[in-house]
Design a protein that fits this description.
By secondary structure, this protein is an alpha/beta fold. The protein contains 13 helices and 15 strands. About 45% of the residues are buried.
């Protein structure tokens, strides 16, 4: 009797042990760990999540620095960064890349939009597939993303550029704007704020004669600068709120010996604009750190995938070395601000030109 009892107990214990082991294995096979991974716990599955960034086009130093920052953020979290950019700055090219990324079943897409609305069907498809979509630098419309990473307050950028150019030309004369593409949301927003600033009576003697578009292509930006100088022989200044455009304009003004005749300001990379600032062609310009823009976008994407944020107003998260960031309203959508534009001039360009 005792022997039979002990045998029965041992058999039950064995069955219970096997059941526990099989149950755990079955839970894992059926997606128990996958559910945790969907919430951002890539360490639970041992695999890396995939985060893609799509810039406007290749051959753009500003974009290269932005993608560098994005990659750094993603790799700090132990995940994989996919860096993409089409040859030409068109919505069609970006749409094709978005479709490819959807088929690859990646976790997140961060896009610098070439058009605010044209990408919506593709980005909506991505979100419906469970991909966390955000934009940075140049926003897509609020229906196409969960939130947007903004390099600086658009109003401050626009107004600061007009205030700066007014000081350069003594508050009087003709000015022109050399922008990127006509569909770039960030450029268009800044230009609108420039125009609003010009409505102030103190700028009564300043006339905006033209907004030209170099499409963020160096050769076209050069051609557009030359056309502005030919069409407006009394032009006193050019504002180029694009790193490609301001560098192209700086070269044209230098080659034509127009240092004391036509002033130049805008948004540029210190590494590309140092020679023009030091020579006086561009008395000063503004920018933020594009590496930080990409870095913030990377942590935003990580937080969205992990579920720490959803893109709603008031949510906060920690963005690595940038510290805590808060999501704020942006029209019908939301955004995260990096900071104010920074002024680069002859007094500080030497210390920045080797940084980015």
């Amino acid at each position: 009797m005792l022997t039979l009892g002990l045998t029965a107990v041992m058999a039950l214990s064995l069955m219970a042990g096997c059941g526990t082991k099989d149950g755990a294995s079955s839970g894992s096979d059926n997606g128990g760990s996958a559910k945790t991974a969907d919430a951002g716990g890539s360490g639970d599955t041992g695999g890396k999540k995939k985060f893609a960034i799509i810039f406007k086009n290749t051959g753009n130093p500003y974009g290269e620095k932005m993608m560098e920052g994005f990659k750094k953020a993603i790799e700090e979290k132990g995940d994989e960064a996919i860096l993409k950019a089409p040859d030409q700055p068109t919505a069609e090219a970006q749409i094709q890349m978005i479709e490819e990324l959807i088929s690859q079943k990646i976790d997140s897409i961060s896009v610098v939009g070439n058009d605010p609305d044209a990408l919506q069907p593709a980005l909506t498809k991505a979100m419906n597939a469970g991909i966390k979509v955000s934009s940075l630098d140049s926003a897509v419309n609020s229906e196409s993303r969960l939130t947007h990473v903004n390099q600086a307050d658009p109003e401050r950028i626009g107004r600061t550029l007009i205030q700066g150019v007014s000081e350069m030309i003594g508050g009087e004369g003709e000015i022109a704007i050399l922008s990127a593409t006509s569909q770039a949301t960030n450029q268009n927003t800044w230009i609108e704020w420039m125009k609003k600033e010009l409505e102030d009576a103190k700028y009564a003697n300043i006339k905006l004669v033209k907004v030209a578009y170099g499409d963020d292509l160096r050769d076209k930006s050069v051609s557009e600068t030359e056309a502005l100088l030919k069409s407006y022989p009394n032009l006193k200044a050019i504002i180029a709120p694009t790193t490609v455009g301001i560098a192209a304009a700086g070269k044209v003004l230098t080659d034509k010996g127009l240092k004391d005749k036509v002033k130049l300001t805008g948004l540029g990379l210190p590494s590309e604009m140092a020679e023009y600032i030091e020579s006086g062609i561009c008395p000063w310009m503004y920018l933020w750190n594009p590496i930080d823009v990409g870095y913030l976008a990377g942590y935003t994407a990580e937080s969205l995938v992990k579920g720490d944020i959803t893109g709603a107003v008031g949510e906060k998260f920690t963005a690595g070395t940038l510290g805590e960031k808060e999501i704020v309203a942006d029209g019908d959508g939301t955004q995260i601000m990096l900071g104010d534009p920074f002024k680069f001039d002859a007094s500080n360009i030497a210390e920045w030109k080797d940084v980015y």
